[in-house]
Amino acid sequence: MLSAPLLQSDGVKSVIATEKTMKQSEILMKHSANRRSFLKKGAFGAGAAAIAAGLLPGRLAAFDQGDSDGAPITKGDIAILTFLSALEQVEADLWIQYAELGGPTNAVPGAQGLSGIDLKLNGKSITTGLAPDYVIALQVLDGDMPQYIADNTDDEISHHRFLNNYLASKGAKTVDLSQFAFLPPSRVTGVPQNGRLTNLKQLKVDTKWWTRYRDDTQNPDFGGTFENAVPDLARGQHPAIPLSNDDLVLNADGTPSNHLQAIASTAGFHFAFIEQGGTSLYPALAQKVTNLEVLRVLLSIGGSEIMHFQVWHDKAGNAPKLTDGDLSFPDLNSGNDPNTGASGSADEFQTNLIMPEPTLFLSKKLGPVSIIRPTSTEQGGAVASVVSFVQDGLFFDPATNKNTGIVDVLMRLAEEADEARRQL
């Protein structure tokens, strides 16, 4: 936990500095132990260790300082940028799948705005809105969903591209995880059948971010615990995209079937789950950066992730109450806790409470404040982000019932990023 800074004598400062150094060493050992424990429990592709080693930055002698206060770009800075570029490639991959199926389309009135959609990956145009009935279901959450999906996709592609370009400009190695792009995409007509990095067909979506941003007495940085907004999403495996044309079913009145709406609503909550991760990750890693220009990069990209999360947080709240098999979306405005049924829970679940509720930060003595959370480097960070993606099911390979080898690579890059320390 973090504590409020106190003025100390030189002698006390020396003791504190020694204790801080020891604590940092303990944290590093804990991170390594946690990672090793996590890897032993999973089954990852052979040779991933060698791949990860090839992605890690080499010597920093050739790196220029850029626009900075004189502090060099350190190996830790490069490790952070390398990990973020890798994670942005993962996000670009999943958002492209959402855009292909649920992006703007002329086939649905109002789904294509006046502005042309020019999504491209490596110079090749991305066709959007290939599942018009899915678009209709997404528009139940908000009429502008197709445009927002396309814009979010464009942003994530640009983040990965920029970070790679920035790494190259400093003489560091860039990141390309495309060799792990072999997971099968949706079989909906028109979807390119090239392999993908991520699986959106069997997700276990954590929705604790919903209550975490409404709680005024707890902060995950202090070890706070929170409830899911949609408990069923955190159980089982749920599709966030139509698996095939068979899922694209409308009722006689043109409204989405419960099954199709459940898929679209799962996507709505998944959008926010993905973007709240970046919202916390960038400020957590920014605390480890040495070079001022690198800090500017993290703060600037991180700010756009916050904008994404705010949009999706708002739209997820419009998911209608319904049941589809073992998946139920509750009425979050009922005043009842969807986990226990207890009444008097409006403040924790009410859908229009999307501004971060003031809560504890740094020290309880300072009083509540509206903040992004978590941002503690002990409670969050790179490894924690990868673990959350794995638990979400993003890298699950249905052909093997195991995660793909990308997990080992991401975990090794994440560990390098988490071990970075600001050098003064």
Describe the structure concisely:
The longest helix is centred in the N-terminal third of the chain and has 32 residues, at 10-41. It contains eleven helices and six strands. It has 424 residues and is mainly alpha-helical.
Would you mind describing this structure in some detail?
The chain is mostly helical and 424 residues long. It has one domain. The protein contains 11 helices and 6 strands. The protein has helices spanning 10-41, 48-55, 75-102, 132-138, 145-169, 208-212, 258-286, 292-316, 346-349, 382-392, 406-418; strands at 120-121, 124-125, 322-324, 327-329, 396-397, 402-403. It has a two-stranded antiparallel ribbon with strand order 1-2. It is globular, with a radius of gyration of 22 Å. The chain starts with 9 loop residues before the first helix and ends in a 6-residue tail after the last helix. The relative contact order is 0.17.
Enumerate how many helices there are, as a single number.
Answer: 11
C-alpha-based Rg, rounded: 22 Å
Largest sheet: 2 strands, antiparallel
Order of helices and strands: HHHEEHHHHHEEHHEEH
For the largest sheet, list the strands in their spatial order: 1-2
Number of domains: 1
Number of strands: 6
Tell me the helix content.
Answer: 40-55%
Outline the low-pLDDT stretches: 1-32, 39-63
Characteristic terms for this protein:
two-stranded antiparallel ribbon; mainly alpha; 424 residues
